[in-house]
Amino acid sequence: MTTGDEAKARELLANAKALLLDFDGPICSVFAGLPASTVAEQLRVVLADGGHTELPESVATTDDPFDVFRHAATLGDDEARYVEAAFTALEVEAITTAEPTPGAHDLIHAWRKTGRPLAIVSNNSAIAIETYLRFADVKKQVDHICAREFHDPSLLKPSPHLTRVATINLQLPAFSCILVGDSGTDMLSARSAGVTPIGFANKVNKLDMLNRTGAAAVISHMPSILLAQ
Question: What pTM value is reported for the model?
């Protein structure tokens, strides 16, 4: 990680009117105790119970539950609803063993001390996020949660939908907001919504991907020192 990226991130955050944070990665590791692969398998069981036993190989072997959810939506509205409901229940279960990202809670508290608003923008379920925030005792520090409360995966990032909703709820122009996320979908969603993205490379192999997908700066950790005093 270059010093220039850290300095650029500090500059961007110093001038931002609001901070938008992705959830899984920047705030915590949702599936630290309940692996995402186990969740994906459980969602395949839901599809099988509905008679969908013949799945494309990419869906049958994926460890990403979002892949199963997106496939369910191609099968019909009922399938999407059932899989999304099961997904939400499993995410809530996973929250009990989620691991906080080092420095994330400090960053949330430090940001709010500056008097500027903070929102969470996530493809994870809103219920699971609210559960985590209560457990972590940071719910009062978050102004808005813009997350999955629907069974239409086309509205999830990389769509700009959730990011735009966040800026609308905060009543701020998109260009004055910063989104910190750890995936290419976060960067693409932010760019499409007119929000400036900062990439969080919590794994070394994410650095190039975050730069390719539009990160204005890339950081490797989430400390409160990123905030200009």
Answer: 0.94
